[in-house]
Amino acid sequence: MAKKDERPPIATDRNILTKSMDDVMHESMLPYAEHVILERALPRVEDGLKPVQRRILYTMLGLGNTPDKPHRKSARIVGDCLGKYHPHGDSSVYDAMVRMAQDFNMRAPLVDGHGNFGSIDGDSAAAMRYTEARMTPLALELLRDIDKDTVKFSLNFDDTEKEPDVLPGRFPNLLVNGANGIAVGLATAIPPHNFAETIDAVIAQMEKPDISLDELMQIIPCPDFPTGGYILASDEIRAAYETGRGKLTVRARCHIEEQKNGKKLIVATEMPYQVNKARALEGILKITQEKKAMFAGVSDIRDESDRMGMRAVIEVKKDADAEKILQYLYKYSDLQVTFGVNMVAIADGKPQTLGLKEILRHYIRHQENVVTRRTKFDLDAAERREHILEGLMVAIANIDEVIALIRAAKSPKEAKEGLMKRFELTDIQAQAILDLRLQRLTNLERLAIEKEYREVGRLIKEYKGILSSEEKLRAVIRREMLAIKEKYAVPRRTRLIQGEEEIVVSREDMIVVDDAIVALLEGGKIRRLPKRNFTAESIASEKPVFIMETQTDRRLRFF
């Protein structure tokens, strides 16, 4: 039997609650962590968007902020998003919107920004009261058919509006634009991919569900970063696509230019993804000062970028080996970096690390669901229209009797009941006849109604065929995705290259050879001074026993 706790009760203020850590963790920390994971930091596998991004796009759709309309103040968009769907700080919304407009962050930007939206040098965007924005045409493809009951809607934070749980996402945005996010105990880093290649991969897996990863990698060989550059070929790329985790080596696109004066220029025209160009050049300046032996040949570092494109220049002295210096820059500077792939997304209601095949499988399932729901919606609308047209055709066939019946009726209600009884019509059909305009009784209009009836019948047959056949359903998805690909496909920017062997730095490369003066002082102390700064007077006060001239790469032994 457990001993009775005889400790005196803790004196507590009535406003302070005493709870065990187990209860606090269970009631506070775990729900918070779950909220951050599911509702903030990680994207959904279906549309590749985090909640704030989805809410921004849905807000812009509600404002009619489409590509064919003028840009609208960013502050208006952010304010609407905050007030209706996203009860957090305005900076979280604006920062997310800015990122969706940056072509050096997004492979396919979803926001068309007007004004200062930041730069690859790390400059921040102007305040939202100065900038303007609207959706890009591709953002509309993510939202397409949202009005046709294609996705589930939920109530917002104050139950006054409805917002989509996920967008229809008519292209695989998670792979096209990638994602970065840090949750509680979880993080995600999904690299961007080429638009056309991802659509081809979706179609390939849809037509052959058991397709191998190697076959998929014939279509998507590696990520395609918006900033271009090179990816070094390695087994890590396959590991990343198979397991969802891997490390890619990303390199700047550089070339060497010969100058008339004999000097050479190392020119970087594309930087690795998410590398700040200005900071990278500062880093190069720092390592040239720290590792003087290796970078003794570097005479100048400058940024010549302009509106025509990027151009970061490292000037090399006449007698130096530019190729060797470039290899050292790859090893020690941000001209070559590692991109850690960690493909975590919300799938089936929980965070999962997904490989390429799993991401495509989830996306295909989402598209099948979206097209099925849209087809049911269109079928219901077509059947309702067919029902009305059947009533109109009955009325037109018996137009004289219908007119006489309506004229004899004392009220619209009596006329409706008379039509329903005489021609065996439904309430909806009888109302449609009463709403009929006189101009529709002309011969041309009668022919138009008959033509529309035949067309609606054809559509109903087509919709039922799609709903009854998985093959037809997938044919619709394939046709629509190919149309999107044809409209928006762009060439690949990042090239896959074979990497060189690891750069080995010899001891000789690390040593700076310079003339020096070594002085043995009274008391057995030794001093070394650069020869260029040495004068006899500068050391006279320390009473040297003897002074010798030597070089910094030599060893001295004193006996």
Write structural notes for this entry.
This protein is an alpha+beta fold. The chain has helices at 21-41, 51-62, 74-84, 90-101, 137-143, 173-177, 195-207, 213-219, 235-243, 277-290, 322-332, 356-397, 399-408, 412-423, 427-434, 443-468, 470-488, 507-510, 536-540, and strands spanning 72-73, 111-114, 132-135, 153-155, 162-164, 179-182, 187-190, 230-233, 245-251, 253-258, 264-270, 298-303, 312-316, 336-342, 344-347, 350-353, 495-498, 515-521, 526-530, 544-551. The strands form seven sheets. It has a four-stranded mixed beta sheet. A four-stranded antiparallel beta sheet has the order 10-11-13-12, with helices on one face. Strand 6 (179-182) and strand 7 form a beta hairpin. Helix 7 (195-207) runs antiparallel to helix 17 and helix 12 (356-397) crosses helix 15 (427-434). The protein starts with 20 loop residues before the first helix and ends in an 8-residue tail after the last strand.
